[in-house]
């Protein structure tokens, strides 16, 4: 059924068969506000009529700029109902990105969340040519805006109700005329090397993927999903929308980023898909909480974790706990269960991570506390998923095996090639890039290097990033970076060089700050903390531990602690937290050259732009830490994965 359907038809099916079941709910002022499938379909109908009255028609694209709310999905389904598609723009996007996406998509109507997003559109609209109407769904602060092209979402729905009075059956005919091969969603690519491309995904692409995922991990109406990652991201579209509509489970939207963890505990999601940064952040939270606990609680958790880790070693091989069952029951009661509850994962059945590599140690931690975390591998161009770990067949160094209906092969140059009916319909306005991405026989050229290990896929890195050390050892910068990032004190690492490996390390302010307070080290700002020599020695020991597991030729020789965190607003990382290596190499060229030369200190010129538009430049000096001949302190102890204390 799913392979020959469309999103609007699935919504109509749910509204007909489960009219009173909850489809969406959002938390407002501390209270969950439910929307049933019937109410969902009615609001989609009104919004679809409203969009049609504004001139949106088959083949057009409607843009949405804002955080996850029911109005986001109502807009998406409304556009699809009349044969249009939707393109999501990350709410953190800056003017240039918004202008680029609106220009490529030629969107006439933009649905924006609030005053912040409307202000961005006011600035970029004069250069977009096509945008005729902006609809907002949070009116706070917009009461006095008098632009004739601005409209409240409620007014769009009212306009749609009036427009549809004399057009009975019109929308149903539009939905029926829709084809599974119509473009449903336009998703931006990661944009790590340039401005993002816009990939077109059809209903068939997305629902094929949802069906194949369901063959591996069955989902149903009783499952729950908390939608907190941007709906502009293919991962959220994949699970929240494609799987949600086809399997009929409810979506919940947290009230605010600050209440997200609390709201997750209330809902108790059964399925979750997040990039590595979310899982790494969760582990950091556990480490901080455990470190702040008393000696007895730390000891109890350590013993419980040891049991969970042993059981996880059996579970990933398809074995049960066996004789460890009584100990596991006790460990869950006093140690593992409370941690899962604090993380909002007490009812979880399936957890997925993808979009970037996740360190094996982080991966194993979640398995050890009883969370069924699995790796996914895919790209926007294949609906975000092609390869997945299966229950009972999990290997921490791989990303799993191909989904049903997905073919995989490794090209002669080591590139990973994928083929399935989930492969996208091409990039908007870029036929050359489309031809380069998908060859004449349907193979998607991922640009990633990897190999197969007994049927499991091992991803090395982007093919162009794979390097060769002087002794001939092939290596990936990402592999080295992940070894260092496993440290609870490290937020991000960027590795440079091939003959001499150097690195730029960005500390984690929460865990490193907690360590500094425990050591009675005073600091005021992030820059102050990163410049502290004791913090430098702490990270030096962490780099040493990462080096131990690496071949001699690719060990980090020198590193520096960057004075700031990498920021998507500074164009240093993407909205999904992927490092833009080309930007880093250009912006920090002085730093990289100083590291390569073996200098004791390196300096960079930092440009700071304040909110009032004032721009100042300042020179920042940083210490270089050498690993040559370094040995950790004699009294240094190994650190368990669940703690930042030794």
Automatic annotation (TrEMBL):
<keyword id="KW-0443">Lipid metabolism</keyword>
<protein>
    <recommendedName>
        <fullName>Acyl-CoA synthetase</fullName>
    </recommendedName>
</protein>
<keyword id="KW-0436">Ligase</keyword>
<dbReference type="InterPro" id="IPR000873">
    <property type="entry name" value="AMP-dep_synth/lig_dom"/>
</dbReference>
<dbReference type="Pfam" id="PF23562">
    <property type="entry name" value="AMP-binding_C_3"/>
</dbReference>
<dbReference type="Pfam" id="PF00501">
    <property type="entry name" value="AMP-binding"/>
</dbReference>
<keyword id="KW-0276">Fatty acid metabolism</keyword>
<feature type="domain" description="AMP-dependent synthetase/ligase">
    <location>
        <begin position="12"/>
        <end position="427"/>
    </location>
</feature>
<dbReference type="InterPro" id="IPR020845">
    <property type="entry name" value="AMP-binding_CS"/>
</dbReference>
<comment type="similarity">
    <text>Belongs to the ATP-dependent AMP-binding enzyme family.</text>
</comment>
<dbReference type="InterPro" id="IPR042099">
    <property type="entry name" value="ANL_N_sf"/>
</dbReference>
């Amino acid at each position: 059924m799913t392979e020959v359907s469309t999103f609007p038809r699935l919504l109509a099916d749910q509204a007909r068969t489960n009219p009173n079941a909850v489809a969406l709910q959002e938390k407002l002022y501390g209270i969950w506000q439910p929307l049933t499938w019937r109410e969902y379909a009615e609001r989609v109908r009104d919004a679809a009529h409203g969009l049609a009255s504004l001139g949106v028609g088959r083949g057009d694209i409607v843009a949405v700029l804002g955080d996850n709310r029911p109005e986001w999905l109502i807009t998406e389904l409304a556009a699809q109902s009349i044969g249009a598609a939707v393109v999501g723009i990350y709410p953190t996007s800056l003017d240039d990105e918004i202008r680029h996406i609106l220009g490529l998509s030629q969107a006439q109507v933009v649905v924006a969340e609030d005053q912040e997003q409307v202000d961005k559109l006011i600035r970029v609209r004069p250069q977009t040519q096509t945008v005729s109407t902006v609809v907002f769904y949070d009116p706070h602060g917009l009461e006095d805006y008098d632009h004739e092209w601005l409209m409240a979402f409620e007014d769009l729905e009212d306009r749609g109700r009036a427009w549809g009075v004399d057009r009975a059956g019109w929308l149903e005919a539009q939905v029926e005329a829709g084809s599974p091969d119509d473009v449903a969603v336009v998703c931006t690519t990661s944009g790590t090397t340039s401005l993002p491309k816009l990939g077109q995904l059809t209903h068939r692409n997305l629902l094929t993927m949802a069906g194949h995922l369901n063959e591996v991990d069955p989902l149903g109406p009783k499952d729950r999903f908390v939608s907190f990652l941007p709906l502009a991201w293919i991962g959220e579209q994949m699970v929240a929308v494609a799987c949600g509509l086809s399997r009929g489970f409810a979506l919940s939207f947290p009230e605010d980023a600050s209440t997200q963890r609390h709201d997750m505990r209330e809902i108790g999601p059964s399925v979750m898909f997040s990039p590595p940064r979310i899982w790494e952040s969760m582990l950091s939270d556990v480490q901080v909480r455990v470190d702040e606990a008393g000696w007895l609680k730390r000891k109890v958790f350590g013993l419980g974790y040891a049991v969970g880790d042993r059981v996880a070693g059996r579970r990933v091989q398809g074995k049960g706990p066996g004789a460890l069952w009584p100990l596991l029951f006790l460990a869950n009661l006093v140690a593992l269960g409370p941690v899962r509850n604090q993380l909002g994962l007490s009812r979880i059945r399936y957890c997925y991570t993808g979009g970037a590599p996740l360190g094996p140690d982080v991966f194993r931690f979640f398995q050890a506390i009883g969370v069924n975390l699995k790796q996914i591998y895919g790209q926007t161009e294949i609906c975000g998923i092609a390869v997945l770990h299966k229950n009972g067949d999990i290997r921490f160094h791989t990303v799993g095996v191909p989904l049903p209906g997905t073919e995989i092969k490794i090209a002669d140059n080591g590139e990973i090639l994928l083929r399935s009916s989930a492969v996208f319909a091409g990039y908007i306005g870029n036929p050359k890039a489309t031809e380069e991405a998908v060859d004449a026989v349907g193979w998607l050229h991922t640009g990633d290097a990897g190999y197969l290990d007994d049927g499991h896929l091992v991803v090395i890195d982007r093919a162009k990033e794979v390097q060769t050390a002087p002794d001939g050892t092939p290596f990936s910068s990402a592999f080295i970076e992940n070894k260092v990032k496993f440290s609870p004190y490290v937020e991000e690492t960027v590795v440079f060089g091939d003959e001499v490996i150097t690195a730029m390390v960005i500390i984690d302010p929460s865990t490193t700050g907690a360590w500094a307070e425990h050591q009675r080290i005073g600091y005021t700002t992030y820059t102050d903390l990163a410049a502290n020599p004791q913090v430098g020695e702490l990270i030096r020991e962490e780099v040493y531990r990462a080096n131990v597991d690496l071949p001699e030729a690719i060990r980090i020789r020198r590193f520096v602690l960057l004075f700031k965190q990498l920021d998507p607003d500074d164009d240093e990382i993407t909205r999904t937290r992927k490092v833009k290596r080309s930007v880093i190499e250009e912006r920090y060229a002085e730093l990289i050259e100083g590291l390569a030369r073996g200098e004791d200190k390196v300096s960079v010129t930092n440009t700071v732009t304040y909110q009032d538009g004032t721009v100042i430049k300042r020179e920042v000096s940083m210490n270089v830490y050498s690993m040559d001949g370094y040995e950790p302190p004699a009294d240094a102890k190994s650190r368990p994965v669940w703690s930042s204390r030794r």
